[in-house]
Amino acid sequence: MSRFGWLLTTACIVMPAPAIAAGDPQVQAVQVDPARPDWENPAVFAIGKLPASATGFPYESRELAMAGRPDQSSRFLSLNGQWKFSFSPDANKLPVGFEQPGYDVSGWASIKVPADWQAEGYDQARYNNWRYPFVADRPLIPHETNPVGFYRRDFEVPARWTGQDVILHIGAAGSAYYVWVNGRKVGYSEDSKLPSEFNVAQYVHAGANTVAIQVFRWSDGSYLEDQDFWRVSGIERDVFLTAAPKSRIRDHFIRADLDDAYTDGVLAVDVTATPGAKGRVKLTLMDGDKVVLRQSVSIAASARERPVTLTGNVPSVRAWSAETPNLYTALIELEDGSGKLLQSTPARVGFRTVAIADGLVTVNGKPIMIRGVNRHEHDPETFHVISRESMERDVRLMKQNNINAIRTAHYPNDPYLYELADRYGLYVMDEANIESHAYMEYGNRVPEERAKYQIGFDPAWRDAHLSRIMNMVERDKNHPSVIFWSLGNEAGIGPTFEEAAKAVKARDPGRLLSYLGWGPLAVGDHRPNWYADIYAPMYDPAAKMDDYAKNWSYRQPMIQCEYAHMMGNSGGNLKEYWDTIHAHPHKLQGGFIWDWVDQSMYGYTKDGRRYWADGAEYGPNPTGDIEFGDGVIQSDRTPHPAFYDLRKVSEPVQFADFDAASGSVTVRNRQDFLDLSGYDFDWQVLENGKIIAHGQISPPEVAARGSGSIALPLTNFRRDPDAEYILTLRARAKQGTTPLVAAGTVMAWEQFALQAAASSKADRSGKVSVTEGANVLRFAAAGSSLVIDRKSGLIQSYSQNGRPLIQGGAPNFWRAETDNGLGTGVVKQLAIWKELSEQRRVTSFALRTEPNGGKSVVVEFALGRGDTLGVAKFQSTYRMEGDGSVSVTANFTPVKTDLPPPYRIGLAFDLPVELDTAKWYGRGPHETYVDRKVGAPIGIWRGALADQPHDYSRPQETGNKVDVRWMELSGAGRGLHVEGTQPLMMNALPFAYSKLYRRPPGTWKWTDITPGPQGTLLVDVSQWGVGGDNQWSDLGRPLPQYRSKLEPTRFELRLSPAKTSQSSRQSDEAADIDWGFFEK
User: Fold this and answer.
1) What is the mean pLDDT of each run of 10 residues along the chain (1080 residues)?
2) What is the reported pTM?
3) Is there a single domain that holds both residue 422 and residue 507?
4) Beta partners for 785?
5) Among candidates 703, 705, 753, 747, which has minimal Cα distance to 728?
6) What are the CA-CA distances from residue 371 to residues 19, 368, 729 (Å)?
7) Fewer CB atoms inside 10 Å of the end CB: C or N, the chain?
């Protein structure tokens, strides 16, 4: 509801709020006190604002309307740019009369608009997950700590605008603000993520004018904006003026459906004209340059708004979907009684029907699968102010990597994003700017008092909720990409949400409704809301999804609104999620991963080096030191390694059920609308990682959601009985198949084993000399030297022609902490293995003679110290061969059976810094883990050691490679070859691995990790996965099959000098395989 009562002036001193514990919500009856300011009154959220309406512009000509460029119109005046700005940290201390044109602001600073003022050097940005960043006692706000920004700008109104309505558009600002024009109060607004429009015609005049805006950082509206994001403030979206005729089209609602046969388009356009003289509303619908529909209707003169509806059918319409984003152009025009054009407004029209049919979400009568992401608006330099280029890059990345849906978490996004989604094909779950997480949390903890805590039960806040929800609907109702409305996020339940659902469905029955309101639920607890069309839980693991799908008492389809929390090095189990989803197509329809982009910011060291700044660097941020690092891409839009697993499980084509005898492969079309004719298929056979055969094959004729088979000619090459052979199948996009995807881009792939490699039969004969010393044991052969230290039991040196290659080989059971490991308690549970990795005692050191006459050293270790000494044993056996290579055999034996499983089982080596390049045969090119590897093909890969660690928002475990057959490390004319008798995990880094261990805040960023003084090579036979279902409970741990086991374990590897000619190559075999989608 709106109220035009100016209870606060710029000169008044307002009452301080009572002091209570910051962030913890208080329960009390809300007293709406008219003596308090508007920004502490939930009944006041809009004063003087025009009714919300669809995005559009009133062009003065058809030509300009078709061009779609408001900046070329004489009716448009941008107010973006430099404004005069003053800042007060205290809402009790406000400048008197700053809104008056005569007030001297020459001494004020300048600030950009749009911009969050925290990005411009004012105030403190805060990152909060769910606790309020101020004393929480709704609707009260602490005044002394409520910053206020004061904006002033002069502008020129053209004389030709005289007699017209002049609309001031503020795209987004907040949390609350007042507006003055030429010293006169115009209005007030809350909701920091939707536009406000004010008709300022009575306040402006031709020539120089002044606009003033007073923005409060906190307000009663902030209680509804408790999202997990940066708490910043300012004017965040475009500000501009529009001139329009007094008699104009104020709003339009395009309903573009399909008939019952899904063949013809059924169009109805509701137009609301302002009061005025008689005239005519015209509708022209075009497919490109071709007019396919014309309609018009006369409107009578009236002193009230004049609604009219224009209807028509379009035979054989080209329907819109995320796979086929076909758009028509509508021109909606108003003429006066003489036929003079008053306004021409263009709109993109997508014909599609959204419904629940047979228990599933359908678009155009077909069930769809949501392969979606949650997207916050974030930029690493400007916080919530997002450029068009950034939005375009987001959409391009999504389309190129098999993502088909966005949830606008947790507020309406910039209107341009919806234009891009319409144009390029992305489904949108449009979410209202409502989250009262702290109150929801407390209400869930004490269910019998839920109605006291959760704001949806409080009638004083009813209108504020409905305003935000319905204003979103009104703004975005014409976008075909929007197929779901969401009432908000983690805001609890209550009658207000039931009423809101009813209001949304009455206004727009052509879309579906989503709302959860609970937050994550316990295992076995499913709580779909009866008024929602879909069940959209968050962070249900695959087993819980399976349970829901099998329970026929639940009728709503499940689309998780959030799943797979991508905090830091995580993203495990995506394959398990999607195997479960595909197993239940009658009930499970995908979900939105959490989330799209990290919310990290750029930080800079004193010498100008850039790093990801954590929340603690911006002051007190409860739980906010790393909460923001949970995207699948970094805030500069560089993909995280987990991004490629998401890409893989979202592929439009699946290859499966390979039969080696016949060469037959099943091909499943995972698309919802298109057949496979938009792809070229190719195949390759790799022999020990190198392409030896390849070819093209025509895709089968498989309809959407169908399957077929192909047969591959795999008999036309000779096989080496000792070699490994792998078949790679790929689907490449043809030109025009997917918008923004270049022809030839690999959109789907799979690999199948044709033949495993046999054990090595290399000739390793030759003379080996052994020299026993008091402190060391020396081996020498073929120019290689191996020195074993008797005290430590480790390799003191392994060298070739006097040039060191590697040292160490310590038993290793510990992994650098990951965000998930910390959050889920794994680090605490497994902490003993850090001690057992660092503390050990050599209990035996023996030189033995092998049956073949060779010599080996067997070292026995008792792990631990003090009370833990001997809880596990480890044995390392070193044997030098005549060719100068060294075999290392490791045996791990737990003694105490009640130990937790090790974090990893392996060996840790030190490398000379000269070995600065890695080449490996295994999964790549990025890091992989046992539960996050499906997005990494097996091949031969190459990269600098400096490029192997991934710079997560803060340092943690990184760089691992799984299924590695061999790895070569090279540089400065020397090289080391490391190969296992079975595929192993290897991790080569240009610094000591311990530098990744957890450090005190302020010293734990990537610029604190410098190369040297030696590098690291970790070789593991077993290691925990990274997990990722969530980041705060046992469910976020790796699945049991992806954890190391406490059991006797043996593995073997071989160290040998690499040929210099090979190790110094500047190209590699991986370049022969053009994957075409890995980010450089």
Assistant:
1) 30 31 58 84 97 98 96 98 98 95 97 98 89 89 96 98 98 98 98 99 98 98 94 98 97 98 99 97 98 98 96 98 99 97 98 98 99 98 97 98 98 99 99 96 88 95 98 99 98 97 98 93 85 97 96 96 96 98 98 96 93 74 64 97 98 96 96 98 96 94 97 86 96 96 97 92 87 96 97 98 97 97 95 96 94 89 93 97 96 97 98 97 98 98 97 96 98 97 98 93 84 96 96 94 98 92 44 61
2) 0.94
3) yes
4) 780, 799
5) 753
6) 46, 10, 22
7) C
Please say if 377 is a catalytic residue. no
Same domain, 601 and 743: no
For 822-947, where are the E strands, in sequence order? Answer: 840-849, 855-863, 872-880, 886-894, 904-911, 917-923, 938-944
Told to judge if 562 belongs to the known catalytic residues of this protein, a careful annotator would answer: yes
Token pair of 335, please?
Answer: 């003429």
Cis peptide before 315 (omega within 30 of 0): no
Contact 518, 535 (CB under 8 A): no
* 728 and 834 housed in the same domain: no
Token pair for residue 799? 């060298």
| Selection from 976, 980, 943, 990 nearest residue 1063 by Cα | 976
Q: In degrees, to the nearest 5, what angle opens at C-alpha 256 toward C-alphas 252 and 257?
A: 145
The tally of domains found in the chain comes to: 5
Owner of token pair 């086991």 = 1045
Angle at which helices 462-476 and 495-507 cross, to 10°: 30
The one catalytic residue in 40, 190, 335, 562 is 562
At 454, which CATH number?
A: 3.20.20.80
Q: Which domain holds residue 391?
A: 370-647
Tokens of 28: 């009390």
Question: Which of 647, 679, 699 is a domain's end point?
Answer: 647
Q: Which residue in the list 323, 419, 431, 490 is annotated as catalytic?
A: 490
Does residue 88 sit in the same domain as residue 196?
Answer: yes
Do the domain assignments include residue 1? Answer: no
